[in-house]
């Protein structure tokens, strides 16, 4: 009696498919060329090509105004509504992008390690170093959209922003430490 070839079980097909998807996902996470050639996920159609995010002069100028505001108000953590008057509409929408650029802006976390929407902080020392021309920050980063990691960055100093550098030279660098009154004992 002749045996008919057996059809693979559904469990075997699912396991093979799941393994194939895991392998594809790992390849997309790690292989930049493959990810950028593919551009869209085969399963859901989501864009997976790397994305470039670029700082622009007006956002750096707004960051400087926020830095001065923090120094004058003796705070380094704030909500966006506290600084709304310092930001244009576009800067308000893009302020959160600054988190990825050089560690000057960060999201504060509570005791449970959670951050809250529209809450930010400025590392005043790093900001002062950047505006003094002593620290480089990335002006353009490339993000892996699957892992949200930075895969490439182009670094600059404040001197690479001539108009902002001219303003700082004319007005002088704001020093938040100079505005903190010393206490006498």
What are the defining features of this structure?
185 residues, alpha+beta, three-stranded antiparallel β-sheet
- State the end-to-end distance: 104 Å
* The number of domains: 2
Output the radius of gyration: 24 Å
Tally of DSSP β-strands? 6
Can you give the helix content as a percent range? Answer: 25-40%
Number of helical elements: 7
Approximate strand percentage: 5-15%
Structure write-up:
The chain is of the alpha+beta class and about 180 residues long. The protein folds into two domains: about 35 residues; about 120 residues, no CATH class. It is built from seven helices and six strands. β5 and β6 form a beta hairpin. It is elongated, with a radius of gyration of 24 Å. The C terminus is likely disordered.
Write the layout of secondary structure elements.
Layout lengths: L9 H21 L1 H7 L12 E4 L2 H16 L4 E3 H4 L5 H6 L10 E2 L12 E4 L1 H8 L5 E7 L6 E7 L5 H10 L14
Antiparallel strand pairs: 1-5, 2-4, 3-4, 5-6
Helix pairs in contact: 3-6
């Amino acid at each position: 009696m002749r045996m008919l070839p057996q059809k693979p079980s559904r469990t075997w097909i699912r396991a093979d498919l799941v393994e194939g998807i895991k392998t594809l996902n790992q390849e997309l996470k790690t292989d930049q060329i493959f990810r950028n050639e593919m551009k869209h996920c085969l399963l859901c159609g989501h864009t997976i090509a790397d994305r470039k995010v670029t700082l622009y002069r007006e956002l750096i100028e707004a960051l400087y105004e926020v830095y001065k505001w923090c120094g004058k108000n003796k705070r380094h953590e704030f909500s966006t509504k506290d600084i709304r008057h310092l930001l244009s509409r576009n800067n308000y929408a893009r302020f959160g992008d600054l988190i990825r650029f050089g560690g000057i802006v960060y999201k504060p976390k509570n005791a449970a390690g959670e951050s809250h929407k529209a809450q930010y902080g400025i590392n005043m020392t790093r900001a002062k170093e950047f505006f003094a021309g002593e620290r480089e920050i990335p002006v353009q980063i490339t993000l892996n959209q699957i892992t949200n990691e930075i895969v490439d960055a182009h670094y600059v100093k404040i001197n690479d922003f001539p108009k902002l550098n001219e303003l700082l030279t004319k007005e002088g660098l704001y020093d938040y430490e100079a505005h903190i009154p010393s206490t006498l004992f």
